[in-house]
Every structure is written in structure tokens, then in C-alpha cells.
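User: For my dataset I need records formatted as: sequence, then C-alpha cells, nothing else. Please produce one.
Assistant:
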Amino acid sequence: MDQQLLEWIGYIASLIVLVSLLMSSIKKLRWINLFGALLFGAYGFMIGSTPTGLMNFGIVIIDIYYLMRMYLSKEYLRVMPIEEDTEYLKYFLKFYEKDIGKYSDLSKIDISESKIKLYLLRNMNPAGIFICNEYDKHTLEIALDYVIPLFRDFKIGSFVFGKQKIYFLSKGYDRFVVFTENRDHIRYIKKMGFIETKLNGILGYAKDIN
């Protein structure tokens, strides 16, 4: 194989491994690292460096092992009502304020007056927060749907919008709406089943709960 092409394979493999380390999501890190290590391992064998090839294929096996554990393990997911404006809630919002600001403006959210206030728990770890206001008699407007980077793999979203339907229906609501211009947020809510629609002349996204 052409030497210059081999060098480019090595550069690309190195770049993929480097990019994997920038991922905040462990699942994304493992997937990207797996492809980078696979390419780097092949590169190692192509240049005659058996130790490099074996080490990276070993990394591939480790990544596959942990990915299988992630996909096959049964996780405990739960929502827990926020009863009052506690010190923990203030610390949580302050700690993740910068990250939350990428998707929502906390200064415009009055949590104490919100109709639905939930902590999102994953294996009993505080993984996020879900805040809704009443848009109309039977509709909830999502003011804040935040999951910390470590758990940002759609499992919690699927749990809230799927398995928690009875909770929201029992409160008398049968539809969610959300207004956002953030592209990442739009991709997320569309993946959760929200449909673009006009609400009182304003572009928004809606999802029927039942």
C-alpha cells in the first residue's frame, strides 16, 4: 500500500480516538473510540507494528464489552416530584447552569409556580429535571427538560414520554407542547415523537400523551 495513504490512515485513526475523548456521553465515547481503535489496529498491522495492532484490537474488545453491558443491563428509572424549592434544587441548577443555558433560559422559568416539577432518577442517581407549565386546560408546556451529559442517551426521555403517560394523564393533561429554536433540542424532541405545528400562530412542537 502507498506509504502516504498509510500515513493518512494513521492520522485519521488518531483523530477519531482523540474526538472520542471529547464526548460527554459515555456511550458515544465507546462507539467512536471503538471505530478509532479498529482503524488504528488495522493501521498497526499494515505498517508491520504487531504491538500497536494487538493493543488497539484489545481496546476494541473492551469497548464492545462495555457497550454490551450498557445495552443489555436493566436500569432503574424513576421520576420523583419536587415538593418545594429546596437547597438541593438550587445547587443542582447552579452547578449545571451553564449547560442548561445552551437549551433553556433559567431566568424565564418560575419553578415554584410550575404545574409539573420532577427530578429524573437513573439508578437512584439524580440525572435531570423536568419542569412544565400549563399551556391550556389539557396541555403542558415544557419549560425545562434537562438531563446531565453523563446520562444523555435518550433512555430517560423515552421513559418520561413513554412509560410515564399515566402520571401526566392522571393530572388531567393529554398533550405536551414545547417552543424552541435550538437545533439540538429540536432533534431531541423530534426523536421523542414531537411534531412541528403552529400553536396560536407560533411555531412549536407538540406530542399527544395518550
